[in-house]
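Attaching the record inline, Q. Sequence:
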Amino acid sequence: MRTVFEIARTDLRIIFQDRSIWLNIVVIPVILSFVVGFANGAGATAPPTTSTLLVDVLDNDSSDRSAQFFDEVRAANATIVLCPLDNTDDDICQLAGAALDETLAESRLSSQEALALIEIPAGFGAQIDAGEPVAIGYRSSEDAFAPSFILQAVQSAAQQIGGTAIAATVGTQVADDIEYLLFVDDADRAAFTETIRSEAASIWATDPVNVEYTASDFDSETLVNRGGGGFSQSIPGMATMYVMFAIFPAAAALIRERQQWTLQRLATMPVSRAQILGGKMLARFALGIVQYAIIFAFGVFLGVRYGNDPIALALLMATFTLCITALTLALTTVLRNEAQAAGVALFLSLTLAPLGGAWWPLDIVPDWMRTVGHLSPVAWVMDGYRSLIFLDGNLGTVIVPLLVLLGLTVVFFVIGVRRFQYS
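Structure, as predicted:
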């Protein structure tokens, strides 16, 4: 084993003799991680917890049911201001005395003066009372942070209104089926229906089923970074890509050593071929880990949190680096010259990285693209990083990516070791 380490140490010393290596593993990756982080939203600011979310409303029904719906929206999120319904003397809705119509609402939505638009159709209340389906119009500014919270409030209100309507309809139908339960007149029947609706609303208001949610204590800037990108996306993504940039050139180096008869001379020494190959692969594995350490350390400086399971994080780094090392060895067996190896290394790095979600999260791409992306080992390690960073995952939540990467490593190493030739 000492011989393997000595070979690896010698190779690393040769690699670091070229001072330009620091440009490739420190300067460029750090700058690119910073730039891509801002492109992914790191420069955005989170809405303050005390801010108001302006939502325009076009109520084409003006019924008790539409008023009830808006009450439920307000109850679901106290920071929502429904315009013009909740406008104040200080003009919190920023309408400047103008009457809100569809044209103005569209303009305010496109300029993000209002973050969403809710449109209640005519006949909304009558359709609800009749137990008929009805659609509420909802539009939002896609690139704003708030609409997701607004949509949650709208969906919550719609579910409550719909749930009480279903309860009233079903209760009345059951009453109609009971022979000895007769209503005096239509007004009596309507009062019975309304009683069921009110009781259902009261029960719903008590939250019979609730979700207990505990949030970690992050400052607002870190929370933005965790929201869908920023440095929390760019740091592991760029680090993963540059690990490939660090390891793939080993294919060209091995081919060059074979052509220069360096490998053959080593094979005549009192060391086994397995030790030679193991030492050279260990050198590139170590370089990949160094690359990860440099960029992840820069991420710590930027305030990126890597979750609460350092063992899981270290295993992801090690298994991905090992997988790329094994893939490099396998590639060496099919590439014929140094130029070919350099071209393939660059092509694979710049293909596997974006395909696997190193440049942007795979959550934003279509399902078929997400499936194709998982042909890349980058996608599996990024799944693991996102689980730890964004979802507070642990070793149990990243076990699938780890097993996939280990499986690929075994396959690549078997191919590489069996097919590798020293001459």
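DSSP finds 17 helices and four strands in the chain. The domain at 53-205 is CATH 3.40.1710 (abc type-2 transporter like fold).

More tomorrow.
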